[in-house]
Amino acid sequence: MINISKRDQSILRSLAGQLAEIAALPVQEETRRLWRKLNGLKPERPMVTIDQVCWNEMEVGDELALQCENDFCRSLESQMRQTLYQWRHFPVDMVVEPFIRLGKAIHNSGFGIVVNEHVSVKDPTNSVVGHAYINQFAEDRDLEKIQMPVITHDAAETERRLSAAHDLFDGIIGVFDQGYDPYLSVWDPISTWMSVQDVLYALVDRPEFMLAMARRMVDGYMSMLDQLEAQGLLCHSQALIHCTGAFTDDLPAPGFNPDKPRTQDIWMFGLAQMFATVSPDMFEEFEIDVCMPLFERFGLVYYGCCDPLDRKMKQVRRIPNLRKISMSPWTNEEIGASEIKSDYVFSRKPSPSLLATDQFDEQAVRNHLQKSVDICRTYGCPLELILKDVSTVRYDPRRLWRWAEIATDVVRG
Questions:
Q1: All structural domains of the chain
Q2: Which of 172, 173, 371, 392 has the most CB atoms lying inside 10 A of its own CB?
Q3: Strand ranges (DSSP E) for 73-163?
């Protein structure tokens, strides 16, 4: 049992009541409908999301200041205060759900590798730091370090959390027990085990070793997914997939059972960010071919992140069930749009650097966003603008608020 003081209870119920009022607004279902239209490749207008922001720089008037004492309560409070803050100041096309998502007590043993690194910190309040990774895979025998993940569920702890949440929120707002939303990048973890530089050298100098390493990772992920399915621990009814709206009429698949979700019932996102500098052929061999077993088992796929994919669309198109393709700040948008056309969602990542300049230039922001809208209109691309990786706004949160207003104006103009 989680002991919650009357003071903590009062704080959380007040926040939950505010969220419930917002969640009941008709605009929430209208926004879901617009996301379903976009994700069905029949958009009515471009959509906009903002995620992964520098919350350490967002405080204004103690809107984000935590008041609860209990750690469980503080976690819920933080989640709710951030949602309320975003709704007030930079909502764009966010959806406020009529429930609190509460994660199940799922443990993933992982691949058994502890990252060895040096960290450089510029702003101690910011979670964005510099990393210098130490290579732990210098010899072929080091592949044995990679273990197969084991998934376990502490059902008693899950029930303890749910019981506390229902005691807090029943009659005010719903509680949704959230299953495991899998992160399946092969090369991002490997980059932290070897360093990006050493991986890129090894792709040339030790290709068979790197292929064996990547395949071992995929085998581990496939085993992990099998375990999650067998134990009924996968998530379902995703609201977001990699920082953007996941509402769709195409999921779940026929035969869906909410007590036993399958990978075919949900989205996945894939990425190989360090492959920005490799050739299309190498990208195909080491990423697309290797990860195909993962792509094939999911209902829909969102592919890409910061990796520029404008010149690798031939390879990206091989991904089954592909629906969204990231177009990062480093892409040639004209090339990307001419390749994507109306076949997929053009998931544009506007540059967050425009929020970090000495002087915030609103016209530069407007021009930057309008260019994406105009190019996608020319080529008939369904478009979403996803502002993410915002590591600083120079401690001026109103820059982000204004970015949201400009983006809203651009996509609805």
A1: 6-412 (3.20.20.210)
A2: 173
A3: 99-103, 106-108, 117-120, 130-133, 151-153
